[in-house]
């Protein structure tokens, strides 16, 4: 206490929140502190604890009354395809009116229809099309979003997607991490020539985009309908040569051994994982690769096989939860909905779901030292909620109790005035 007071006298705080219950998410639980307080200095967490233990001589420039609400780390959506043009509600409706999938594909539907619309959009059109989706996340206390490319599938359009992602991060109160997903699908002009397309991805697209500073990580879609493990490995070799971390859409529709592959490269995460094998679980546990669960895609595709949650839990694989927000398989810009679905569909506990949208999502982005828990020295990103207990965040569906969001110490209303 004396030590804290002496430190405090030398350095006052920029802001202090009192009358809040904290869920720090430190350690393995919620890290609950009832009637707590949290202080910010220079955009970082400077102190937190029970209000009764507040250092008495410390002064804050601004004091906020948290009204008895809960305060958690800012939520982190660690897997999105949120930047794209057009949408596919026409296909959704056609399918429900009985038009067969093959017919929709023949009409040029599916992922390649989003590629056409995205290629036709300039950077600003992409940014504007994505704004309502991003602000939907930001209204839910999201303070960091990962955004993938992968609907351009040619250098210019992939660059526009990544630049639009970056500019969303510059114009909105959110941190954006951008991921190059050139190996998302084989574009129409490379039909039957997947190897040549992978060569283009590895030798031209990735080096050029990385040189422009647009790539924080590299992803691929490893699946029978997309890229083989051998093709994926070529992309990972190219990423590794450039010093970029990798992650993978793995085991979504079949077991390709993708999780073990990305673990072998020391990857940040393996995502989806409905068909993950025992060997895949073991490889991820050994490499510390995070499992990113995407129940929105599972729901939208009406899948029936759930990821091996218990095996991952028993093996100590960290599990993150994310929206996968995309126009084809998860048109769901709501991380709270993903948390609810992770519990109802995948049987995560509410504690695991909240850890999945904070601490473990930070790890999936390689940002565990910077964000994801309320920890002194980490970035002061947090969200306040009018709830009775942390489990409420996973319990309700279609309900947003967020009352305030704080980005690097700056408070804002959840709903942005654009
Ligand atoms: N897996 C998916 O479910 C989405 N991408 C991926 O790699 C599908 C994206 C789309 O259909 O637009
Ligand atoms: Fe995805």
Bound ions, cofactors and other small molecules, one mention each: 3-[(4S)-2,5-dioxoimidazolidin-4-yl]propanoic acid, fe (iii) ion
* Contiguous runs where pLDDT drops below 50 for at least 5 residues: 1-10
Query: What's the architecture of the largest domain in CATH terms?
Result: Alpha-Beta Barrel
Gyration radius, rounded? 22 Å
CATH topology tier name of the largest domain: TIM Barrel
Average pLDDT level? 95
The count of strands amounts to 16
Major sheet: 8 strands, mixed
CATH homologous superfamily classification of the largest domain: Metal-dependent hydrolases
The tally of helices reads: 16
What structural class is derived from the secondary structure elements?
A: alpha/beta
Q: Proportion of β residues?
A: 15-25%
Gap from first CA to last CA: 45 Å
Task: Count up the domains.
Answer: 2
Q: Class of the largest domain, according to the CATH hierarchy?
A: Alpha Beta
Percent helix, as a range, is 25-40%
Structure, described:
The protein is 37% helix and 21% strand. The protein has 418 residues and is of the alpha/beta class. It folds into 2 domains: 111 residues, Roll (Urease, subunit C, domain 1); 290 residues, Metal-dependent hydrolases (TIM Barrel, Alpha-Beta Barrel). The strands form 3 sheets. Strands 1, 2, 3, 4, 5, 14, 15 and 16 form an 8-stranded mixed sheet that branches. Strand 1 and strand 2 form a beta hairpin. Helix 5 packs across helix 6, helix 9 runs parallel beside helix 10 and helix 13 runs antiparallel to helix 14. The site of 3-[(4S)-2,5-dioxoimidazolidin-4-yl]propanoic acid has 11 residues, from helix 4.
């Amino acid at each position: 206490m004396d030590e804290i007071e002496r430190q405090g006298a030398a350095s006052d705080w920029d802001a202090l929140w009192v009358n809040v219950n904290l869920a720090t998410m430190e350690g393995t639980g919620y890290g609950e502190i009832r009637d707590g307080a949290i202080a910010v200095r220079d955009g970082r967490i400077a102190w937190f604890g029970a209000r009764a233990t507040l250092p008495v001589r410390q002064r804050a420039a601004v004091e906020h009354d948290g009204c008895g609400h809960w305060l958690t780390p800012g939520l982190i959506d660690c897997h999105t395809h949120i930047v794209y043009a057009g949408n596919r509600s026409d296909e959704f409706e056609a399918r429900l009116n009985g038009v067969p999938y093959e017919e929709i594909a023949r009409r040029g539907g599916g992922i390649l229809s989003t590629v056409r619309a995205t290629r036709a959009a300039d950077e600003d059109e992409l940014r504007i099309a994505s704004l309502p989706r991003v602000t939907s996340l930001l209204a839910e206390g999201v303070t960091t979003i990962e955004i993938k490319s992968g609907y351009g599938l040619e250098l210019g359009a992939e660059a526009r997607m990544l630049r639009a992602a970056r500019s969303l991060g510059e114009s909105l109160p959110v941190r954006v991490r951008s991921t190059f997903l050139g190996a998302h699908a084989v574009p129409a002009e490379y039909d039957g020539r997947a190897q040549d397309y992978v060569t283009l991805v590895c030798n031209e697209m990735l080096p050029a985009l990385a040189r422009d500073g647009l790539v924080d990580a590299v992803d691929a879609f490893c699946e029978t309908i997309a890229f083989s493990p051998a093709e994926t490995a070529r992309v990972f070799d190219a990423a590794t040569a450039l010093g970029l971390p990798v992650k993978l859409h793995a085991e979504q529709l079949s077991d390709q051994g993708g999780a073990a592959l990305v673990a072998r490269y020391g990857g940040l995460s393996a995502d989806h994982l409905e068909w993950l094998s025992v060997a895949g679980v073991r490889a991820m546990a050994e490499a510390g690769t995070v499992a990113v669960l995407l129940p929105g895609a599972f729901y939208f595709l009406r899948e029936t096989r759930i990821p091996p949650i218990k095996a991952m839990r028993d093996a100590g694989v960290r599990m993150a939860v994310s929206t996968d927000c995309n126009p084809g398989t998860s048109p769901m810009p709501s991380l709270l909905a993903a948390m609810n679905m992770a519990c109802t569909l995948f049987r995560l506990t509410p504690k695991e779901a909240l850890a999945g949208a904070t601490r473990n999502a930070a790890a999936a982005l390689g940002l565990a030292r910077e964000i994801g828990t309320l920890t002194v020295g980490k970035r002061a990103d947090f969200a306040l909620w009018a709830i009775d207990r942390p489990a409420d965040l996973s319990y309700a569906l279609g309900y947003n109790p967020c009352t305030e969001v704080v980005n690097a110490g700056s408070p804002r209303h959840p709903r942005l005035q654009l």
